[in-house]
Q: What sequence folds into this?
């Protein structure tokens, strides 16, 4: 069993062949997929899509790119989605100072709101952080007891300490397969076995052999194989370990 812990399967690029995408995922051993909302519209779409398939699990949140549009009314509806038993996590939320589509003050405000909601609901938070390591770590430190995942971790081992000290999980994407990304592979080697996850972030960030193409859950097997190689582990054993980690974090049924 492989678990893709971060996908956007509601994306319009999957509309024409979503059933085939899911079939290919299962053929590749990907039996569970977390479908992550990034604004109100996509959070509703994730919830509706997951209601049709017992192997898909929805989240709800506002991505930092959309934080500037996170009105009180929108956040109220996001909260209602997060309160559903079928919602397994709060987010995607966090900080993005690379593209900075939303003002930093709006990103910080929205991130704090998500962290407080995660604390109230005792659900994990899915954290996006790009070029914002210091502020991300500081805000997470302000929310003791909140668990979650640093999704699509692209940094190196030097930045891991604060997240591991806060018992967060670390998830690696297709970025770890890129030839020049030795630093990220060093981080994948350094993460403790019980805090490691894999993901696609599809339809984005396809692994190296398919770089530039649409990404899909089946290709998380490439991420798993790369991480297993750098850690000196067997891919099938790492698949089970990361799936058990995902089940523990997101409250999924136990891995057989």
A:
């Amino acid at each position: 069993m492989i678990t893709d812990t971060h996908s956007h399967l509601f994306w319009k690029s999957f509309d024409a062949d979503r059933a085939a995408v899911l079939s290919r995922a299962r053929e590749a051993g990907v039996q569970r997929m977390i479908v992550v909302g990034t604004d109100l519209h996509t959070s509703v779409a994730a919830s509706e899509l997951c209601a049709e398939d017992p192997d898909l699990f929805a989240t709800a949140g506002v991505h930092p790119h959309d934080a500037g549009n996170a009105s009180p009314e929108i956040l109220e509806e996001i909260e209602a989605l997060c309160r559903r038993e079928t919602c397994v996590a709060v987010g995607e939320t966090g900080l993005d100072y690379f593209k900075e589509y939303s003002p930093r003050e709006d990103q910080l405000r929205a991130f704090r709101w998500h962290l407080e909601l995660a604390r109230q609901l005792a659900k994990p938070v899915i954290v996006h952080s790009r070029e914002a390591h210091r502020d991300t770590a500081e805000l997470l430190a302000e929310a003791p007891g909140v668990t979650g995942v640093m999704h699509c971790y692209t940094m190196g081992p030097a930045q891991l300490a604060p997240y591991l000290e806060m018992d967060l999980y670390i998830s690696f994407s297709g970025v770890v397969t890129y030839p020049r990304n030795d630093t990220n592979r060093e981080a994948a080697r350094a993460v403790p076995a019980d805090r490691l996850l894999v993901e696609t972030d599809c339809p984005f960030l396809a692994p190296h052999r398919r770089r530039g193409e649409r990404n899909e859950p089946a290709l998380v097997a490439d991420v798993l194989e790369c991480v297993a190689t750098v850690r000196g582990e067997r891919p099938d054993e790492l698949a089970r370990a990361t799936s058990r980690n995902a089940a523990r974090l997101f409250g999924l049924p136990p891995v057989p």
Notes: The two ends are 9 Å apart (CA to CA).
